[in-house]
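Record format v2
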Amino acid sequence: MNSIPIRHKWEPYLWLLPSLLLMSIFVVFPIGIVFKLSMSDISKAGIVGSWNSFANFRAVFRDPAFGTVMMNTAVWVVSVVGLSTLLGFITAMVLNQKFLGRKVARSIVVFPWATSLVIQASVWNYIIKGEYGNLNNVLLNLGILRGAVNWRATYQIEFAWECGVGIFVTIPFVAFTVLAGLQSIDEAYYEAATVDGAGFWKKLRHVTIPLVRPSLTVCTVLNIIYVFNSFPIIYTITKGAPANKTDTMVTFLYMRAFYDNQKGAATAMSVIGFAILCVCAGAYMVISMRKEER
Amino acid sequence: MKKLTALLLALLLALGCCAAFAEGDEITLDVIICQYGPNTNDWFLGTGMNGTNFVDKFEAENPGIKLNLEVVSWNDVYTEVSTRISNNNAPDILNIDVFADYAAEGLLLPVSDYCPEDLFSDFFPQFIEQSVIDGTVWAVPDLASARAMWVNTDILAEVGVEIPKTWAELEDVSQAIVDFYDGEVYPYGMDMTTDEGQAAFAYFVWNNGGGFVDEEGKLCVNTDKNVEAIEFAIGLVNKGYTNPNPATQTRYDLQDMFGAGKLAMVVAPNQLPTYLADKDYNVNYVSAPLPVNGDGVTPASVGVMDRVMAFRDDEYPDQAARNEAIGKFLKFFYDPENYVGWVSMEGFLPAVNSSVAALVESDPSFEAWLDVLGGCQFYPTADPKWNDTKQGVIDVEQKALTGGDVRTLLDELQAKLEG
Amino acid sequence: MPMTPDAVRRANLRALFAALLAAALFVAALSLPIYEFSATVFSKKSGNTFVGDEKYQAARAEVEAAAAERAAQTGAAPEIIETVTERTNSKGEKTSMVAFEVRETMRRTGWQFIASGLGCGRVLLAALICVLAALALLGAGLAGAMDVDWPALPAAKRVPRRLAGALGLAALGLIPVFMMCCNLDFSRQIKLAADGFPRPGVEALLEKLDGFLYGGTAGGDVLKLMGGVGYRAAWPLWALMALLAAFVFSAIIAADGRPGRALQRGALYAFIIALCALILYPYYVMFITGFRSNAETTDMYFQYLLPTKWVWSNLSDIINRGVPRYLLNSLLLSTGATIIALACGIPAAYAMARMRFRGKKAFLGFVIMSQMFSPVVLLVGISRLMNALHLNDSVLGLMLINAAFNQAFAIWLLRGTFVSISSEMEQAAHIDGCNTVTAMLRVLLPMAAPGIVTTLIFVFINAWNEYTISTVLISTAANKPITVGITQFSSFNMIEWQYLFAAALVATVPVVILFMCIEKHLAAGLTAGGVKG
């Protein structure tokens, strides 16, 4: 083990202290405030009243839109995390090959990661505008389309676009985490597998995936959290319209808090979301760590 | 000699400090202004007011009052204001559209506390009426706009139809346009977005003899007339007579489509010509009254009015001085010398009499719009449930767009508003 | 896998034969009608008309006269299509609209395109030249492709191989360009001109088109006639593309002798090119739109792919509207957040990597938990806290918040880096009498520099891109970071796309460059992060 001797029992905690303090004050404390608010009456103008024994939570569960929104959130998280993991994995496999211009390609793949989500979302919002968006412009001027297409004909399509943008901005993170894993794999494993007569798929299943799994686990947990909490894409492109049909939980609670002035319900929803995340991310982590140990 | 100079300098400095200290009881007003257009920021904070700006000019003319003025976009203003209120950090002066929630919470100062008498009598009375709750005036209007239906005359002439005056004619004209242009031109612009969907609600219910409130002024959204009106509006969308995405295409998208000649009719405010000219659009158009259902209904034009209000700050030691400072701010703002520039900059309509003459002189078309404004109906913004109503009707529209039944939805909304 | 000289010769011969065949077919395909036109030579619409009434008769007569004239000119038999749309309006009156069209179908071969002098003809000619040149290089016995992963060859042989491959690929790429040029030449440009948006050079084009489609008979009416042109690529065009692909692949096979591998490499490149194109597309849009004029950003006729006039003054406009100030704030905020995050994160990561203590797992859990609340969700709480600390509306407050929200990621990355470095040196330093702090500073940190740089840039970029907290916390314009500052251009009452994207570009470029700089370390840093410790 790589440890060094410790002089006092409390020494490690001293090392942790700055970080612990910073997070306690600026992350944990607001969490506490949110928990407290979720059980208080909050007036429309935002004045906090007294404890109201879970009335906010009851209001959330009674809200007919809540079901739709939870469904959307599930679709959003599963599709974005799932597809971006798959596509990111493929991208990483490709970027790990030797080819002409590999350096350039790797640099380009980093781009979406380095760009603010608000900006990405605004650009895509402009791209898919049917009346004057750039997608129509390019396709018409390149001669691929004859007439302008309404790229957001129904809300289902709009939601699909939002998921697409979500996947688009998530791929680089997955790709580079997996790439990192791939690069740390010893060539000797593959050579051994080749000697054993293993083909591409066998090597993938028995060498690549098991060895990449640790990086993939951490990355997927972080992704679940980030994607679940992702706000600017949906807020910029549809604002949840029509009638919450494209809302996810985070945009929904933002609208509840700041458009409908129902901060009580909104904070209650944050707490619910927190609980869901804890369960999902926790369960995923436990399951994959067990697999690793095996 | 050098020492003497130094001493003198030190003395002067000390005196200066004292002077500064003596001025230390100057008052700072936190002001939030909404961004009405690209020039708002420049006018208040940059160089848009003939080389100077509102804040500098005000502070020069009113020593002892400092302005901490901020221009906030409409996107963020509700978020910001509600966060500041819940942090006990409300602005002193706020420019926004709603006020009833704040008044109901007891956060606002009555206008009579700070508004000078002569200025108060200068406001158009029908505007002041819109800001009264239980006999107290809580806010003053800052500007207004009136809406009308704008019609692309070239399109109608080419198709060979007249400007529709009734809903039936509107449908005929729409069908003719759809046939003629094979879907390349949308007949009617419909905005049912989360931003401003309540406007579409108003355009149709008011022109069907319905409304947001009943005869006693109580909120009542599920009348037969309202149901009929919204069913008609949704019908227009479903028959393909409107822009394709009413739930996400904002009025500005519609105005762009209108300017590009892709939309034949759109309901928009009086500043549409300014907007179209700014973007170099080249279409021929006229304004017309909104179509009504049947011959018996008078066309209702829709007025939109924003407000200025002052928040309470009970911790401030000298309330009288604070009120006076707020009064001075208003006085300065509504001074024709400043106000005319503000109103005309974005093509709005004024809220005070004293500026009308100067505005009409600068642009004669103002006069006609002032008449229109006189007959406008306004949203019932004085109702403390207005915000719920507004979000509610938008929700109803959007649900109806995705296949909901209008009557059921409106009944549900009414129950929610009463409950 | 080295090949015997004999095998190479055989592979080359095979490929050469395939390439020659492909080229011959390419030339032959040009003689087939690759495009079909169904041109409306005359059209008329008449609203509020009834079949048989006076207005209808007049229109009909006009149309028939036009068709007869056309027939006299070209000898072809144009057909007249009449579409009647009838309906009853709300008053019970019947109205109808009649649309007449005079149509003619014609076919054109590739050679005719080349002879026409149209832009697309020139592209087709260029494709032909590319194919022939590549063939010449192959024919010199130097078959090859442009890939790097080929058996080592002397430079003298590599260069022509790559050239031949490049020319073949260029020819392949020219076919889509040909289709695009066709579209621009004989439809879009004409339609736009007919709608009243004439482009420069349209006059010369009209003349050529008249010669190409109507044999010079249309004269001044080309504009009107072409307004209704319909056309489609006939099968020989697709065959051309297939042949060219065959040509390129045969060239690759020539160099390697393994068709399966050639396909695999082809797929690899196709994937990479498609991926890069997709990723760069939004940036292209940002760039193009950021320098358009206001009117052009919402052009609903999609007239121009690129701005007609590059409005560089958009940049100076956004500078006047406070963007430098926002950039400065962002720089300050990100730098501060990075310093704080590292100052707190390095000791914590060090303890996690190097020390054994109770509660290690609990701390890890705590770190992950702290990530689960999105800033959006915590907005209300954060703003209350900042208000209590009097950090509202200050860049310092944002620094602290950003540093706190980036702790988890920073600790994760740093701990991984530290774990991957052996502690022997530090232990030696300990024995030499250094204390833990000095050992870390002097020994570990220099070795961990790449990992620390990666972390540093991560935190910097996250802080630079943060939006939601800043929107709510910052109210004074002078304190806004760039992400919040640019929303002034997209307020819901009017989106000024050109300013929005110009500012977005200004905000994005520095970060992208930063990220590209660490790309090399990125994978390394993440590798370290993923290692279990």
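The longest helix of chain B spans residues 2-22.
The two ends of chain B are 84 Å apart (CA to CA).
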